[in-house]
Design brief:
Layout lengths: L1 E10 L9 E7 L19 E3 L1 H9 L6 E5 L7 H13 L3 E6 L4 H7 L5 E5 L3 H4 L5 H11 L3 E8 L5 H11 L5 E6 L1 E2 L2 E2 L3 H14 L3 E3 L3 H5 L3
Parallel strand pairs: 2-4, 4-5, 5-6, 6-7, 7-8, 8-11
Antiparallel strand pairs: 1-2, 1-3, 9-10
Helix pairs in contact: 1-2, 2-3, 3-5, 5-6, 6-7
């Protein structure tokens, strides 16, 4: 059993699958405390689910979904996921894991039952926390068994050394980098010239890079 904050269908607003309809399962709790986090994953507003109960809710519409496991941090519920994900895959649903990329051992326990991994690389200039580069490298090496891409939230304070570190992490697995300008509410917190500057600096050292803002905020949907 694990605590789920909410279950809903919407469009994917981030990354290379932006605009696609997905079913979102928001897990409670996170092992990080990023300065820019604006997600409500309050345990007090959650409900307890068994794997069977959650599967019943997802199957209740009779549709097949790409199911986005988001949070919070879904990999904190790895014991639940080990039981739940095989059941979900058996029903024909695809599994899209949204994760902060800091729990490689937990990822290793469930990677065989995941289709797509959206993994953050948390820059200290944006998150306020030091990045464990070696742990992050290991996470991407494990995730590369399936489709994986890096999501990098940045602001005006991004350092050139951070750009180099991100490229160093993803190059061994040839992962795409999705640059995501930090938002303040529904507005950009990064100037357009700065976005262009950061994008071009990445492209000079790594060519699999795109810049995609949080589209769901512009559309005013969850």
């Amino acid at each position: 059993m694990t605590k789920i904050r909410e279950i809903f269908t919407s469009i994917q607003g981030e990354g290379p699958y932006v605009g696609q309809r997905q079913l979102f399962v928001r897990f409670c709790g996170c092992n990080l405390h990023c300065k820019y986090c604006d997600t409500d994953f309050d345990v007090d507003k959650s409900e307890d689910y068994t794997p069977k109960k959650l599967l019943e809710v997802i199957n209740s519409s009779g549709e097949q979904y790409m199911v986005s496991l988001t949070g919070g941090e879904p990999l904190m519920s790895v014991k639940f996921l080990k039981e739940f994900l095989p059941l979900l895959r058996e029903q024909g649903h695809k599994v899209y894991l949204e994760t902060n990329g800091t729990l490689p051992d937990n990822l290793a326990e469930v990677i065989d039952f995941v289709d797509i991994v959206s993994a953050d690389i948390k820059l200290e200039s944006a998150s306020g926390m030091a990045l464990d580069k070696e742990k992050c490298k290991r996470f991407f090496q494990i995730g590369a068994k399936k489709e994986i891409f890096a999501k990098v939230v940045f602001n005006e304070h991004i350092e050139d050394s951070e750009i180099s570190t991100v490229a160093e992490i993803v190059k061994p697995v040839n992962s795409e980098i999705i640059l995501q300008p930090q938002m303040k509410g529904n507005d950009f917190a990064v100037s357009v010239p700065k976005c262009e500057e950061v994008f071009n600096k990445f492209l000079k050292i790594y060519n699999k890079v795109r810049i995609i803002p949080q589209v769901h905020k512009f559309l005013n949907v969850r």
